[in-house]
Amino acid sequence: MKGAVFLGDRKVELREFPDPEPGPGEVIVQTRASGMCGSDLHVYRHQPGGPATQGDRIVGHEPAGVVCQVGQGVTPDVASVGDRVMIHHYIGCTRCDACRLGWPQMCTGAPFQAFGTQVHGGHAPLIKAPASTLVLLDPALSFEAGATIGCGTGTAWGALDRLGNVGGETLVVFGQGPVGLSATLLATARGARVIAVDPEPARRAHARRLGAAAVLDPTANDPVEALRDLTSGGAAFVLETSGNSAAITAGLQSLRPWGSICLVGLGGEVGFRVEDHFRSQITLMTSWTLSIVAQRRCAEFIATRELPVDDIFTHRWDLDDVVEAYANFDLQAGGKGVILFEQDA
């Protein structure tokens, strides 16, 4: 089968790989949709030579599809051929407290493995996975929805869980890429008044369509002053998804006393004098994707409320077009991209 690999320096290509076979406790999933994640761009742009750019791992950590084979020991109550599934994209030891709580990325028993990095990912027609990583996908949700719930939209859900009850409060979301748009959609459904911040007009318009009460171009004026005007002195909650250092700083300065900020975007740096924020009693936190339990709950929330999560996607691609797909996604001017596979692939 063909699978996509990253070679660094903005190069991606298709290579031939043997079809996977399930071992004990494993399944083979026929991929229907494999999401493109902003975190992939860090590897896509990276200088060649590291383990992630050697071309021996199929990339893509947001797969959803249908179970087509089960390995020894996989019982029907765990997985059956024909199940529609998402995949929680981390593999831990399964024995430590973190794994038992559904957080294999926090595994203390062994270095965790991630699909698309340490093990083959979803940009291929078939993917092998431990049955323990599967999350059933509600028939009301598309495979595209399942793909983004696995990481992009799921990351927004995890961050909102970290922030707490945002209902009835103002939440400022910096960055309206796939994670930020997901946060705008989910937080609005949770009862928050969302102010979406992004320099791209198309992304601000997209945020409006997904429920943002107000949008802001941070390059037009001082974003801190503008946000204080929009929030009558400061926001209760800030979610930073862009990984932009200036955005993190602006987010901190936009909080009201007792406010909370959650950092999700990668790549940024921030420094501040403790004295400048000491008396504000603010809370600063990070959020790293979500647990497998939260992935299921996020999917249930979206399905029961019939949220238009598919509208986060602006670009859909065939695997054969993966070079063009990542060149377009690298522009970071639209919403989310996804690789789609035919049913008989």
Automatic annotation (TrEMBL):
Q: What keywords are annotated for this sequence in UniProt? A: Metal-binding, Oxidoreductase, Zinc
Checking SMART domains in the record gives:
PKS_ER (SM00829)
Supply the Gene3D superfamilies for this chain: Medium-chain alcohol dehydrogenases, catalytic domain, NAD(P)-binding Rossmann-like Domain
Q: Which cofactor does it need?
A: Zn(2+)
Q: Which residues cross the membrane?
A: none
Where does the UniProt annotation place the signal sequence?
none
Q: Which InterPro entries match?
A: ADH-like_C (IPR013149), ADH-like_N (IPR013154), ADH_Zn_CS (IPR002328), ER (IPR020843), GroES-like_sf (IPR011032), NAD(P)-bd_dom_sf (IPR036291), Zn_alcohol_dh (IPR050129)
- Record family assignment: Belongs to the zinc-containing alcohol dehydrogenase family.
Q: What is this protein called?
A: Zinc-binding dehydrogenase
Q: Which organism is this entry from?
A: Saccharopolyspora mangrovi
